[in-house]
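Consider the tokenized backbone below.
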């Protein structure tokens, strides 16, 4: 278990008297691609928030990389998040900054100092997500799929061990969705583990992977090819 990236051990979580997760246990290994599915309100986003310490478990233990996250001292949270890449459904780009500036902003916020290294890394990331020609564009000049590519590039700034993707294709058309999935699969093939929350079960058929299903606070682990969601 020494190199396990995620280890949930009998985790309970909720808000006040409202229980969201009950006795949830699972592990995720380096280089895995895993889907997280469940109906609206089943706890997918809460589970991801537990991983990046935006909420705490009420009982049980959570390990992410070398960090024990429940509880995690506030001063340790930035260091935890630097080993993670986090992608949201709504992109969360800074509207008044260019594509490159959006990436440089994250670099500055996470301690990068060398301007030349920052620009070189930003160029590498834009090439990786197929946006080299859009470096100076503002977010409103991009399609939704292109904005999500910027968000992915930004999430990869610190070469994370784990990419957390919360409904990353939820606002995209089928063509843009396929493009994003191809990028995520390439990132995974390069060795980064991916945990992707989605309500799009067709994706799981098209890009099969192990699937964790949340239902009524419990989790079911479906091996690759065994998830039968509709």
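A designed sequence for it:
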């Amino acid at each position: 278990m020494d190199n396990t990236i995620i280890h949930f051990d009998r985790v309970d979580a909720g808000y006040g008297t409202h229980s969201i997760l009950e006795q949830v246990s699972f592990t995720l290994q380096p280089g895995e691609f895993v889907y997280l599915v469940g109906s609206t309100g089943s706890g997918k986003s809460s589970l991801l928030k537990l991983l990046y310490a935006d909420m705490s478990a009420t009982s049980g233990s959570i390990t992410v990389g070398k960090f024990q996250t429940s509880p995690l001292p506030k001063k340790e949270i930035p260091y935890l998040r630097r080993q993670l890449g986090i992608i949201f459904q709504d992109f969360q780009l800074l509207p008044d900054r260019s594509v490159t500036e959006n990436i440089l902003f994250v670099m500055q916020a996470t301690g990068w100092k060398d301007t030349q290294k920052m620009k070189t890394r930003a160029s590498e990331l834009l090439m990786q997500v197929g946006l080299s020609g859009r470096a100076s564009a503002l977010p409103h000049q991009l399609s939704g799929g292109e904005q999500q590519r910027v968000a992915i590039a930004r999430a990869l700034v610190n070469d994370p061990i784990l990419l957390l993707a919360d409904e990353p294709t939820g606002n995209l058309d089928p063509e843009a969705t396929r493009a994003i999935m191809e990028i995520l699969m390439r990132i995974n093939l390069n060795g980064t583990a991916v945990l992707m929350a989605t309500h799009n079960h067709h994706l799981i058929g098209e890009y099969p992977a192990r699937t964790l299903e949340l239902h009524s606070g419990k989790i079911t682990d479906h091996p690759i090819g065994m998830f039968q969601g509709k």
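Residues 174-189 form the longest helix (16 residues).
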